[in-house]
Design brief:
The chain has ten helices and 15 strands. Helices cover 26% and strands 34% of the residues. The radius of gyration is 26 Å and the shape is globular. Its main location: membrane. Pfam families: Spore_GerAC (PF05504), Spore_GerAC_N (PF25198). Keywords: Germination, Lipoprotein, Membrane, Palmitate, Signal.
């Protein structure tokens, strides 16, 4: 019994003098980076980091709606990204924690350089995750990082952090997969600041919005389609965030339709050495406004024509910009790799006006709202 008491006493003494975690830091003594921005000029990388105090942005019952949330933005420069990342720690006053990074924003000057340099440098930091949203922009990064959401909510409620409410974002791991696949253009959404749409009383309130898509060839940005020219790409996403279109009939708006889901397929075919790409899209939606007493079936056909025109127009804009918005070449590589290699060797961008074959679009309207629609 005496021996047992000695063992228990010694164990309790060891537990008392040993710390729980040797390298732990108090959470209040860390600077939590939520977004990284990278620019390139004068042969140097310019790195920006957005830092938030989570005690100010945490959602609690006593949170004051509309209370201004302070945003801190740090900047450093270096010949390499690693140097810039190291320098920013020198003035942060607290240990920098990268595990909460959710967004990376790259300027056009960075996108014109080999993108793998940026990706490899960032991904070497073990704390930074692969599934973070990536964007390109023409705006100043300092302007992007100080943007707040409606009601002066924190940047965590802006388009950068919750883009899926408006469009399908792309994460870092998916983007790396895209630019690594043969025949894949790689597509990165662009964001900009809209300074005209919102007011807080009489004061203008800028907000973030989608500004098109950047496309890549050989891991370098080679084209940009602005938002009006890339509308056909929105029908590629399986889940669509209630995209509203007007359905015309005899020069007038017959109805407004909201689309909620899509099944989009690219089918390459090879006949007599000629490659054609057929596109099939099947969408579902519902009627939100009806101005003409037309049947649901007819409205579905007219909505399909609108979407078909979107698909054709975006393809033509892509040809002018030498980009492949529907990733047709990648579809060819997956089904006919030998033919793809033959065509790519003859001409890197082999798509032509007549490369697009049949474009078949079907729209099923499953709901007519609180009012019944004609079925005949």
């Amino acid at each position: 019994m005496r021996r047992l008491r000695l063992i228990v006493g010694a164990s309790l003494l060891l537990l008392a003098i040993l710390p729980g975690c040797w390298n732990s830091k108090d959470v209040q003594n860390l600077a939590y980076v939520t977004a990284i921005g990278i620019d390139y000029s004068e042969d140097q990388y310019h790195m920006y980091m957005q830092v938030l105090n989570f005690t100010n942005v945490a959602k609690t019952e006593n949170a004051e709606l509309g209370k201004s949330i302070p945003i801190w933005v740090g900047k450093s420069t270096g010949k390499t990204l690693a140097e810039a990342l190291g320098k920013i720690k020198e003035t942060s006053q607290k240990s920098v924690y990268w595990g909460h990074v959710k967004v990376i924003v790259l300027t056009e000057d960075v996108l014109k350089r080999p993108i793998n340099e940026v990706i490899e440098a960032i991904n070497r930091y073990r704390e930074v995750r692969y599934n973070i949203n990536v964007f390109g922009t023409k705006e100043k990064l300092t302007d992007i990082f100080v943007q707040k959401s409606i009601f002066n909510l924190s940047p965590l409620d802006t388009l950068m952090y919750t883009p899926e409410q408006i469009f399908t974002p792309i994460t870092g791991n998916k983007f790396i997969a895209q630019i690594s696949e043969p025949g894949h253009s790689g597509a990165m959404p662009a964001i900009r600041i809209d300074r005209a749409s919102w007011n807080e009383e009489k004061e203008k309130k800028p907000m973030l919005r989608l500004a098109g898509v950047y496309f890549f060839e050989n891991r370098k940005m080679n084209a940009h389609l602005p938002e009006p020219e890339m509308v056909g790409m929105r029908w590629m996403a399986r889940k669509i965030s209630n995209v509203i279109i007007n359905v015309p009939s005899e020069g007038e708006v017959a109805a407004s339709v909201a689309l909620i889901s899509s099944r989009f397929r690219v089918l390459p075919t090879v006949r007599n050495g000629t490659v054609k790409f057929d596109i099939r899209a099947k969408l579902t939606g519902y009627i939100i406004e009806l101005n003409k007493n037309e049947s649901v079936a007819l409205l579905g056909k007219e909505a399909a024509e609108v979407i078909k025109n979107d698909l054709l127009n975006t393809y033509r804009y892509g040809l002018k910009a030498k980009c492949d918005p529907y990733f047709l070449r990648h579809a060819l590589y997956r089904d006919y790799p030998r033919i793809y290699r033959k065509l790519i060797a003859e001409e890197p961008f082999f798509l032509k006006e007549d490369s697009l074959g049949k474009v078949e679009v079907k729209v099923e309207l499953t709901n007519t709202g609180k009012y019944k629609g004609r079925t005949d």
